[in-house]
Amino acid sequence: MSKRVLLIIPSAIVARGLEHIFNDLGEFEVCGILTDLSGSGEAQLRNMDADVVIVDPSIFDHASRGNARASLSEHTSAAVLAIVGSLWDEDSLRQYDGVLSLYDVPTTVIRKVRTALEGRSETPRSEGEELSAREKEILVCVAKGMLNKEIADQFNLSIYTVITHRKNITRKTGIKTVAGLTVYALLNNLIDINTIE
Amino acid sequence: MATSNERHLLSPSMKMADLMNLRFSLLGVLTRMGVPFGFGDATVEEVCRKQGIDPETFLLICGVYAIDGWLPTKERLERADLRDVLKYLRLSHAYYMDVALKELAESLETLIEPCGEKARRIIWRFFADYKDELSKHFEYEEKTVFPHAEAVLRRGADRTFTIGEYEENHSNVEEKLEDLKNLVMKYLPAECRQQDIFRALFYIFSLETDLQKHTVVEDDILVPIVNRLENHE
């Protein structure tokens, strides 16, 4: 099955050109073209379920450019490549999984997209359902009845980081209350019943 | 399931059997209000009058159960009988504690029987805590909120408590039940039997749905009625 590519590119000429390159080769298909993320753009980004997103970073204003990758990640788990035509702040390009140039030949475009996809599948996705080692440590603390502040001190984390971990624990397990998380920790042998009684 | 078009169907002149056929959960409203089966082709109005229940109030509560997201109109709320709303809420509490939770407890007991002693103890304690919490929540309503509503009706309420405080205090007992659901569905040890898990989940889901509707009756029927009466005192 060919991989689905979503283009977020204001220039119709560039978008059509890329579409042509992908469709010629069959390995990828362009599932949608957005000119920007205004209006229903974000919802479309979510619904497209694309494997690859190619975005022209100029759709983000200067202030939000540094967080562009992160804001896209809120809506899609796809690999994200930037496409640039001129000199561009190198630092801001590092957040992407790859960078295409307007002067890349078709084979280079395909190679870069493949590399970006491979890089993605090697790193564990944050959406995974397994709790990370850190999340397990924090879960144990929660089950023992520790407060966020105490947990933060123990691991040298900010209280906000602890809250984020707790949110992720609840999202992954589907369990919201401290009592419920305690049962989860006990059933999964993360803690011993004697430590909480 | 009833659609928004069917809300017009909820009238005292409809047949009780047609009303009950809209949704399974309406049978719970019917039995808790003490209406016996065998009503034949009688209308909602006829059946209710025979039992001494105000038909408009009965339909108001049925509307909540039959139609998701249904909000009763101001006129309907003004016609409702607060005594019947309170009667329903009290009888529901009794049903949850004496019937629904008992069934759930039995199904859980069977479910965790094959588990090790440790798992049995922690699951059972979680359920017992939930039961306590729910019971305390009901007790607060029965000792503080409902008597206040009755006092407002008699125009004898003192001003130390208003229904607005109840709204703020309406503690969320739903989270623990949701946790129990996820624990049973996702994380039980492999020794548990599939049909026992299904049976426990069945009771959890029906209690959960019922309690959600119960909360709607409290928040969107009881509270606005008492609110209005408080302001007219």
What's the arrangement of secondary structure elements?
The complex is a heterodimer of chains A (197) and B (233).
Chain A (H helix, E strand, L loop, with lengths): L2 E6 L3 H14 L2 E7 L6 H8 L3 E4 L12 H6 L5 E6 L5 H4 L4 E4 L4 H17 L10 H11 L4 H8 L3 H15 L4 H10 L10
Helix pairs in contact in A: 6-8, 6-9, 7-8
Chain B lengths: L15 H7 L3 H7 L11 H8 L3 H12 L7 H6 L2 H31 L4 H37 L9 H7 L4 H13 L7 H39 L1
Helix pairs in contact in B: 3-4, 4-10, 6-7, 6-10, 8-10, 9-10
Structure description:
The complex is a heterodimer of chains A (197) and B (233). Chain A has 197 residues and is α/β, with parallel strands linked by helices. Chain A folds into 2 domains: 3-122, 3-Layer(aba) Sandwich (Rossmann fold); 133-195, Winged helix-like DNA-binding domain superfamily/Winged helix DNA-binding domain (Arc Repressor Mutant, subunit A). Chain A has helices spanning 12-25, 41-48, 68-73, 90-93, 106-122, 133-143, 148-155, 159-173, 178-187; strands spanning 3-8, 28-34, 52-55, 79-84, 98-101. In chain A, strands 2-1-3-4-5 form a 5-stranded parallel sheet, with helices on both faces. In chain A, α6 (133-143) packs across α8, α6 (133-143) crosses α9 (178-187) and α7 crosses α8 (159-173). The model of chain A has no long low-confidence stretch (mean pLDDT 86). By secondary structure, chain B is mainly alpha-helical. Chain B has 2 domains: 4-77, SP0561-like (Orthogonal Bundle); 81-232. Chain B is 72% helix and 0% strand. Chain B has helices at 16-22, 26-32, 44-51, 55-66, 74-79, 82-112, 117-153, 163-169, 174-186, 194-232. In chain B, α3 crosses α4 (55-66), α4 crosses α10 (194-232) and α6 packs antiparallel against α10 (194-232). The longest helix of chain B is centred in the last third of the chain and has 39 residues, at 194-232. Chain B starts with 15 loop residues before the first helix and ends with a helix. Mean pLDDT of chain B is 90; it is low at 1-6. Chains A and B meet through α9 of A and α7 and α9 of B.
